[in-house]
Design goal:
The complex is a heterodimer.
Chain A (H helix, E strand, L loop, with lengths): L3 H18 L1 H10 L1 H23 L6 E2 L5 H4 L1 E2 L3 H8 L2 H30 L6 H12 L6 H12 L5 H8 L11 H29 L3 H9 L4 H26 L10 H5 L8 H4 L2 H10 L4 H29 L7
Antiparallel strand pairs in A: 1-2
Helix pairs in contact in A: 5-16, 6-10, 6-12, 7-10, 12-16, 15-16
Chain B lengths: L1 H38 L3 H7 L11 H7 L4 H32 L6 H13 L4 H11 L6 H6 L5 H12 L3 H9 L4 H12 L1 H16 L3 H6 L8 H10 L8 H11 L4 H18 L1 H15 L4
Classes of the chains: A mainly alpha, B mainly alpha.
């Protein structure tokens, strides 16, 4: 039951809304705050051109794109572009790999980062904590191309450091770039190396925000370090951890972890490795760049965007349930 | 006895902690040092002995090869530096303008526009329509402009900055307005100076994104004068000849030393591309930690 004043406020809001759509109000508002709208204009124009126009471009997934005729005048061909991908085993392979790697990497990176962030406080000296932090953060700033050079220096079959060590110990060299199954471990390791340090520094910042009162009270009660970590640090860190990992869970299909360059660069485009390294982004990218197959690339891209949107919505639903403050919308 | 056990119990776990971090730090550092060592190793030694953490036969020929006789890498440096500086500057300007205006509560359409910004996070048209837009309709293939435009606005950064600007007390802005300061003047003279931490953090992250961008050039750049460092590195994998625009020079080099310093030259290019990041590292770190507390702000 709404009180009269609420009803009045509601109707006022309603008229406000209709008024704001009125062209005269619109012009008045723009004139009144013209400087703000001028500030918004460049960014908004950019988003309209580079983000919204391509959204209408998804129609080319249903067209036989002809560069001469352009997007609108190309012929409609229904779902033909989807056929190859959806009938091939590539659909399952890249979908499985995308989900498998992202889940594995989120879980591994998160747990290692929690461990690191707690132990970073336990070195007993500020100086060494600072030094460790600086070093473990470094790989985060290197590009995946540089990481590729690094991985190659370690794993090259003829000259790599690992095979060199194996040789010195009397083992046969391993052909790392010739066997897909190794990459189920190499890829997560590369991601851990690049982002575990970064994530743990984020968590350290969150831990620093925990009030020292809790720890002092626990010390008075004679809690050990392990108990403090288990009963204070981890529970209070959990909201940050959960939100961060839920958010990256939602992004799995939108360029998973926002950073799929590893899957394109580290395997060096070696077809032998595709069963273990091909994810949806690399598939779309390769279809466009190497095969120039715009139809298929846009069809798979649309599949990715739609699944990605669903994932974000589901994730947001769970985030909202857990902590409505942190939900995206 | 009890005393002894106590101190042992205190020191031992700490040692373990240090051991773990030292091991992990080595995991982070050794690969980079390995690349550094390869770049300084004689090519024939690389072929014969493989890669080692300390060069078996020291040689800086790789660097000579990369830096002399050809200006490919210098060109790539110029492109990378220009795109990074100009891109980050434009990114900050466009983003902070938009974020500031959207943070002002007197703006009637701010929620609608914020939603327009936010929606691009949820859904995108995909790579192919973007590719067609840039190449066929905007004609930006093989231009420096696309390298900058590719990361000009990030919706997430707009939202982070908007939250930061919302925290600027309205009374400061209000009093500037009463003193007759225009909105632009207020923004540049009062709001921006108050916001250096957020600008520095977002600026640094954007610079890293521009510096490390390999996808945009590999989609849109064919003219090798416009290669940035990352794309040069990627192209070197398949074709070391990118470094030798002057074929006769490389032939004579090949004659005198028997082979092109391919591996060491590749690794030298790699090291040269990391250089600026290492130089900027103290700054990166400082603002990185500050930025984390900003990132924690709910968007």
């Amino acid at each position: 039951m709404s009180t009269p004043s609420q009803t009045a406020a509601n109707s006022e809001r309603r008229t406000n809304r209709t008024r704001s759509l009125h062209p005269l109000t619109f012009i008045k508002e723009i004139v009144k705050h013209w400087s703000f709208y001028v500030m918004i204009l460049p960014g908004l124009l950019f988003l309209i051109i580079f983000n919204y126009l391509p959204m209408f471009g998804v129609v080319i997934a249903f067209k036989d794109y002809n560069p001469v005729k352009g997007v609108w005048h190309s012929k409609w061909i229904g779902f033909t572009n989807f056929e190859f991908f959806f009938k091939s085993d590539a659909l399952w392979r890249v979908t499985f790999n995308t989900i498998f790697y992202n889940l594995l990497i989120i879980v591994l990176v998160t747990s290692i980062a929690i461990l690191f962030s707690i132990l970073l406080q336990e070195t007993g000296s500020r100086l060494s904590t600072g030094i460790y932090k600086s070093i473990i953060l470094l790989p985060y700033f290197l590009s995946w191309i540089v990481m590729d050079y690094i991985v190659f220096a370690l794993l090259s079959e003829d000259h790599g450091l690992l095979n060199g060590i194996r040789h010195a110990l009397g083992f046969e060299p391993i052909s790392w770039y010739g066997e897909p199954s190794y990459w189920r471990i190499i890829m997560p390791l590369a991601y851990i190396l690049k982002s575990a340090g970064y994530t743990s520094v984020i968590y350290v910042a969150a831990i620093t925000g925990i009030s020292s009162d809790y720890y002092e009270a626990a010390e008075i009660d004679g809690a050990s370090k392990l108990q403090k970590a288990r009963h204070i640090t981890i529970p209070l860190l959990m909201p940050v951890v959960l939100i961060l990992s839920l958010l990256s869970l939602g992004k799995i299909f939108n360029g998973g972890l926002g950073d799929w360059g590893a899957f394109y660069n580290l395997p060096r485009e070696s077809g032998v490795l595709f069963p273990a390294t091909d994810v949806i982004d690399t598939y779309v990218f390769r279809a466009l760049k190497n095969m120039g197959d715009i139809g298929m690339s846009s069809a798979v891209g649309l599949y990715q965007a739609v699944v990605g949107l669903v994932m974000v919505l589901i994730t947001n639903y769970f985030v909202k349930k857990y902590d409505s403050e942190s939900a995206l919308f | 006895m009890i005393n002894h056990r106590l101190s042992f119990g205190r020191v031992y776990p700490k040692l373990l902690v240090h051991l773990m971090f030292i091991l992990y730090s080595l995991m982070c550092l050794i690969p980079v040092l390995l690349v550094l060592s390869i770049s300084f190793t004689d090519e024939s030694s690389l072929m014969k002995d493989g890669y080692h953490l300390i060069p078996k036969v020291f040689s800086s020929l790789g660097y000579h090869f990369v830096l002399n006789g050809t200006n490919t890498i210098l060109n790539a440096y110029k492109v990378s530096i220009f795109v990074t500086l100009a891109g980050s500057f434009c990114h900050l300007l466009v983003t902070s303008f938009m974020a500031y205006a959207l943070s002002r509560s007197e703006l009637r359409y701010r929620n609608q526009i914020s939603f327009l910004v936010f929606f691009t996070v949820l859904f995108n048209g995909g790579l192919a329509p973007y590719y067609i837009l840039v190449t066929r309709y905007l004609h930006l293939k093989d231009t420096l402009a696309i390298l900058i435009l590719a990361a000009l606005v990030s919706p997430i950064n707009v939202l982070i900055m908007r939250n930061f600007f919302s925290a600027v007390p309205a009374s400061i802005i209000e009093s500037a307005r009463i003193d007759g300061s225009g909105e632009f003047r207020t923004f540049f003279r009062i709001v921006l100076p108050l916001s250096t931490p957020v600008l520095a953090t977002i600026g640094l992250f954007t610079s890293i994104a521009y510096w490390n961008d390999w996808m945009t050039p590999s989609l849109f750049i064919e003219n090798n004068k416009l290669y940035n460092l990352q794309y040069l590195l990627q192209s070197l994998l398949t074709n070391i000849e990118y470094l030798t625009s002057n074929e006769t020079a490389s032939r004579s080099l090949e004659k005198t030393i028997g082979m092109l310093p391919g591996e060491s030259a590749r690794m030298a290019t790699c090291i040269l591309s990391i250089g600026p990041i290492i130089l900027a590292y103290p700054m990166l770190q400082k603002y990185f930690v500050k930025g984390l507390t900003l990132g924690a702000v709910k968007s």
